[in-house]
Amino acid sequence: MKKAILIPDSFKGTMSSAEICSIMKKEILKFYPQCEIISIPVADGGEGSVDAFLEALGGEKIYKKVCGPYSGETVDGYYGVLPGNVAIVEMAAAAALPMVGDRKDPSKTTTYGVGQLIMDAASKGVEKIIVGLGGSATNDAACGLAAACGVKFLNSEGKEFIPVGGTLDQVAKIDTSTMCEELKKIKIVTMCDIDNPFYGPEGAPAIYGPQKGADEAMIKDLDEKMRKLSEVMIRDCGVDVQQIPGSGAAGGMGGGMVAFFKSELQMGIETVLETVHFDDLLDNTDFVFTGEGRIDGQSLRGKVVIGVARKAKAKNVKVVAIVGDIGNDVGGAYKEGVTGIFSINRVAVPYKEARPRAKNDLALTMENLLAYTAAL
């Protein structure tokens, strides 16, 4: 083996993508000391996305004090600038759920600080901004973010204000023409791995409101206000966000990014593969090692393993998936380009017992697999 690419997803609650890459690399070098190894920790848009991209590509992490989840409060935000004039902003750097502690209230929290990070990145002369969604404390449909970028929200009296979840129904007019001119020239891609609509039984308030502190009454109220906002978006932005899968992500931020910035909602793995120029990296590669905590029929919808396999298949590169659990209906993975699937679970024990063994079991699984390939 002369060249290998490591691009696993994290095993949620067990090992980060970077930790998995490190373990895989160590085992490969035992058997193939001269092997060129490219490690690409996978980012899904949530907390840790900036660090994952920087580890994979290099670049600079920039810190900036910005508005936190509550207006008037400041947090130490950050974003990354990658080679090629690309910035990566994760909303968790300014509007994450852990930041509010016991003060959960999606009717009052804001994404304004995320907009400030985007504005700062734009001032650096970047040509593209990747915005990661995940772990938000908000339900403001990115109105706070957009306001920080110059978009004007006016009430029925013509007065400008910054909407939060509880005041979305007060938006009578949206003026995107006042947006920062620099931003209008920058391509913005939003990482989004869910397909929830803006409102309704499967919408942002109903599905994600409870974890952000919303009770049944607040969920109903937020949902109605998002419906009203969506009508204004149709008229003033020309976008029916309810028809866009993923518009309900991060408290409606998915829909807001499309309506206000004409952003593209893109699966996390697709964004990663595009940003690291994965197609080019595949040249002369012998094996791609990928994986996720569990592979099953749902994985075929476009999770990490399948996203990687589809690209590798086009260049006839072998793909080995190292996973925690193997569920039902995984046969389709082989058709997509996966060469083999191996579970790290060496003994039949409950997850609580398997979790502390995971790192060592991963190393032993890699060792067994590599010993076999080396003997061929």
UniProtKB/TrEMBL annotation:
InterPro entries: Glyc_kinase_flavodox-like_fold, Glycerate_kinase, Glycerate_kinase_RE-like, Glycerate_kinase_sf
Keyword Transferase in record: yes
Gene Ontology BP, a term: organic acid phosphorylation
Database matches in Pfam families: Gly_kinase (PF02595)
Sorted UniProt keywords: Kinase, Transferase
MF terms (GO), sorted A to Z: glycerate kinase activity
Entry similarity comment: Belongs to the glycerate kinase type-1 family.
NCBIfam families per the UniProt record, alphabetical: glycerate kinase
PANTHER family assigned to the protein according to its UniProt record, in alphabetical order: GLYCERATE KINASE
Protein name, UniProt field: Glycerate kinase
Organism ancestry: Bacteria, Pseudomonadati, Spirochaetota, Spirochaetia, Spirochaetales
